[in-house]
Amino acid sequence: MVAVKEDFPKLTPEEYLVWEETQLENYEYIDGQVYAMGGGSVNHSRLAVRFTALFETHLGNTSCITGNSDLKVNIAETTNYSYPDVSVTCDDRDKATTQYITYPCLLVEVLSDSTEAYDRGGKFRLYRNNPVLQDYLLVSSTRVEMDLYHKKDTGEWIILNYQAGDVIELKSVGLRFPIEQVYRGLVLTREA
Question: Which GO molecular-function terms appear in the entry (predicted)?
C-alpha cells in the first residue's frame, strides 16, 4: 500500500481513533501525522491475498489471528498505528481489542517502488521495538525475491534473502513453504 501524507492539523491518538472510524479509507498515524493508504498494483494485491490465505490455512486450528491490510496495528509502546499488508498475532492480549492489534509475531509488507525505502528503514525501526515481533517479511512484487528480518533468541535481528528455488521459513508461526508457491502465475515486471 502507498502512504500519502494528508494536509490537516495534527491529531492526538484518541482523536485519530475516533476520526478514522468515520472514514471510508484507512489512514496510518505516525507521530501525530495522518497518512492516507492508497492502492497497490495487481501483483501487490495478489501476493497479499496469497499470504493471508496461506497463514489462515496454516493457523486455522490455533487461536492465532491473521489480518489483512484492513487490520490496524498499534506499534507497541507508542501511539502510532499502521496497516501492514498481512499480520499475525498469537498473543491473548490482542483478543481484548476490537479496533487494532498490538502484539503481532509476524508482519508482511509487499513492496512497491514508492514505499520500499520506508518499509526497509523507518517502518522497520518502529516495528522492531515490539517485544513480540519475530518475523518481518518484505516481499517483492516485481521479482521472485523476499527479505526476512528475523529476531534471534538473543534479540539480534538478522536479514535472510530468499530467491527462486528457496524455501521460506517463518519460525514465528512454524511454517515452511517454497517461494514459488506465492509467485505462481504472476507476471513480474517493474512498476510503471
Answer: endonuclease activity
Grid cell locating 101: 492489534
To which H or E segment does residue 136 belong? strand 135-139
Nearest Cα to Cα of residue 170 among 79, 55, 67: 55
**Most distant CA pair in the chain: distance in Å?**
49
- Tell me the pLDDT tens digit for each residue of 24-54: 777 878 888 887 776 678 899 999 999 999 9
Q: Which of 1-10, 23-32, 81-90 has the highest mean pLDDT?
A: 81-90
DSSP letter, residue 73? E
Please state the pTM of the whole predicted model. Answer: 0.88
Per the listing, cell 471510508 goes with 24
